[in-house]
Design a protein that fits this description.
The complex is a heterodimer of chains A (313) and B (326). By secondary structure, chain A is of the alpha/beta class. Chain A contains 13 helices and seven strands. The radius of gyration of chain A is 20 Å and the shape is globular. Chain B is an alpha/beta fold. Chain B has two domains: 183 residues, Thiamin diphosphate (ThDP)-binding fold, Pyr/PP domains (Rossmann fold), CATH 3.40.50.970; 128 residues, Rossmann fold (3-Layer(aba) Sandwich). In chain B, 36% of the residues lie in helices and 20% in strands. Classes of the chains: A alpha/beta (313), B alpha/beta (326).
């Protein structure tokens, strides 16, 4: 969680310096993301969004590629071969059906692997949420739907997103279990995901988990949350900060000391410096490369356009 | 080898693919128990079982999005959408995900999948059942768009599409499902995607078409040869993406005259791409302005007005004669 927060703040700082494109911070949601992956096996799929870097990293996605994507480089979407994490979905909600298909494919191929898809409260209003939940239940696939209900979809508060009392209760309509957990409690999220993963792996189908959390920062670096919520509200949630809660939990058990914390902080900081350096030192894609990954091999028209591009730019 | 309809040839292709490759699966609305609204998947459910031939809920975006996930994780899904007019709910998946994943992940993830879509008019169907939106799909980067016009090509192109490492939108002309028969080989064979077919060789005029409009185009070519003594070259594009521009350009350089025929609306139709390519690559070989004979920029009409809309042999003949100056 410390690494995740360090990354998150680093990215916001880099964006302010003009070194990254728009950034979507996840501060406050670290427990929901790290806790979720803790409940998975390393070979399980993660199909997540632009606010889920912590989760993607926890499942093996290198920081430097997450950063490269933010610098505006397509190679940021290409994790190493052994990392079962899809590049982040930028459109809202469309990726949930992919996780269902992936989980279905793993079931058909009898690999024992499952899929977890992460999305926000806003995405539950998308039609694809409905289609994904319905398909997953009908075909009984091992897909975990993790909703990080962080209170807002850009400016729209959760109460105006749906009249349902909870997101979790939506599971009932699809004939699958729905669970609501404290999303700022690492252990609660872990336990809910682990249980859902065990069920999924045993062929008992999908689960919807609502992790109730809060987006401390803006929707993106282009957003101004003061237009739609009060500082007081944000301060209330800061008191529930998942990192601080973990610190208190460990302190109470004599498992924390400031030196250890300082060592982790500086390790995280060094790791992010390394990752930023790697990402920023990646040479540009090269002239014409934007056409090379459209198909496995270049059709004649694209080859023609590629020559034209190389000649003229 | 047997003489079969296009529907039968497609059915055979799917059967052969299911037989040969355990990763191939079929999914869509009513494709299992009833064999699909056009019975193209007839009997496959019984032969290959409900795990591989899957009846899905009524949700086009879900079908395509789930097929995408299946493809990413190693399957070879062949999704069926019942009519092109019902394919639009899935357009977001096609544009935002299916056509982009290879690029977005720089080849790390791919979506080798086929989306079969019955399309086109001519059977007096209900509203939304006669759409011809192939140009919409052709405009989307990262997907191939294929349109067979004969049973032989239908089977060979479908098998090529299933074997293709990239996503393919496979447009099946509804009007041709059962209107013509030809000899189709048994077993697996592929017709290459991206290669047009010279349906007829000629010297004076080039007719370019695809899908169901080949019927009228062919008939017009015969009349032009018999009545006007004109030697007509007919090109069946078969693939819109990749577009076999070389075959068209070579032909037009030879004949100097060209008419493009399609049933989709004219503005932004794929005929525009064909004519633009001709203008760029062989304008000085032209003896007359190219002509487009197309559907109108109207909503596809209901049964009683369908004949006003669909290009008939007469319209093709008039356009051809204008280019010939006769």
């Amino acid at each position: 969680m410390v690494f995740a927060r360090t990354y998150d703040r680093k990215c916001t700082a880099l964006q302010r310096q003009g070194r990254l494109a728009t950034y979507s911070p996840f501060e406050g949601q670290e427990a929901a993301q790290i806790g979720a992956v803790a409940g998975l096996e390393p070979h399980d799929w993660v199909v997540a969004t632009y606010r889920d870097a912590a989760m993607m990293w926890a499942q093996g996605y290198p920081w430097e590629l997450l950063i490269a994507g933010r610098t505006g480089d397509e190679r940021g979407g290409s994790p190493p071969e052994h990392v079962p994490v899809m590049p982040p979905s930028i459109t809202v909600g469309g990726h949930m059906v992919h996780a269902v298909g992936i989980a279905w494919a793993e079931k058909l191929q009898d690999t024992g692997r499952i899929a977890l898809t992460s999305f926000g409260d806003g995405a539950t209003s998308e039609g694809d949420f409905h289609e994904a939940m319905n398909f997953a239940a009908v075909f009984d696939v091992g897909c975990i739907f993790l909703c990080q209900n962080n209170g807002y979809a850009i400016s729209l508060p959760r109460e105006l997103q749906t009249r349902a009392e909870t997101i979790a209760q939506k599971a009932i309509g699809y004939g699958m279990p729905g669970v609501q957990v404290d999303g700022n409690d690492l252990f609660a999220v872990y336990e809910a995901v682990k249980e859902a993963a065990d069920r999924a792996r045993a062929g008992e189908g999908p689960t919807l988990i609502e992790a109730v959390t809060y987006r401390i920062g803006p929707h993106t670096t282009s957003d101004d949350p003061s237009r739609y919520r009060s500082d007081g509200e944000t301060e209330e949630w800061r008191r529930l900060d998942p990192l601080e809660r973990m610190r208190i939990y460990l302190s109470e058990r004599d498992a924390w000391d400031p030196e250890w914390q300082a060592a982790i902080d500086s390790e995280a900081s060094a790791e992010m410096d390394r990752a930023v350096d790697l990402a920023e030192r990646m040479p540009p894609l090269g002239q014409g490369r934007i056409l090379d990954a459209m198909f496995e091999s270049l059709p004649p028209e694209l080859a023609r356009q590629r020559s034209e591009l190389v000649e003229e730019t | 080898m047997s003489v079969v309809t296009m529907a039968r040839a497609l059915n055979d292709a799917l059967d052969v693919a299911l037989e040969k490759d355990s990763q191939v699966m079929i999914l869509g609305e009513d494709v299992g128990r009833t064999g699909g609204v056009f019975r193209v998947t007839d009997g496959l459910y019984d032969r290959h079982g409900s795990v591989r031939v899957v009846d899905t809920p009524v949700a086009e975006s879900g079908i395509v999005g789930v097929a995408f996930g299946l493809a990413v994780a190693g399957m070879r899904p062949v999704a069926e959408l019942q009519f092109m007019g019902f394919s639009y709910p899935a357009l977001d998946q096609v544009i935002s995900h299916v056509g982009r994943i290879r690029n977005r992940s720089q080849h790390r993830f791919t979506a080798p999948m086929v989306i079969r879509i019955p399309y086109g008019g001519g059977i007096g169907a209900a509203e939304h059942h006669s759409e011809s939106a192939e140009a919409l799909y052709a405009h989307i980067p990262g997907i191939k768009v294929v349109v067979p016009s004969t049973p032989y090509d239908a089977k060979g192109l479908l098998l090529a599409a299933i074997a293709d490492p990239d996503p393919v939108i496979f447009c099946e002309p509804i009007r041709l499902y059962r209107s013509l028969k030809e000899e189709v080989p048994e077993g697996w064979y592929e017709v290459p995607i991206g290669a047009a077919r010279l349906e007829r060789v000629g010297n004076d005029l080039t007719l370019v078409s695809w899908g169901a409009m080949l019927t009228e185009t062919r008939a017009a070519a015969t009349l032009l040869e018999e009545e006007d003594g004109v030697s007509v070259e007919v090109i069946d594009l078969r693939s819109l993406v990749p577009f076999d521009a070389d075959t068209v350009v070579t032909s037009v350089k030879k004949t100097g005259r060209v008419v493009v025929v399609h049933e989709a609306p004219r503005t932004g139709g794929f005929g525009s791409e064909v004519v633009a390519t001709i203008s760029e690559r062989c304008l000085y070989s032209l003896e007359a302005p190219p002509e487009r004979v197309t559907g109108w920029d109207s909503v596809f009409p209901l049964k009683r007005s369908e004949a006003q809309y669909l290009p008939g042999v007469d319209r093709i003949l008039r356009a051809a004669r204008r280019t010939l100056g006769t």
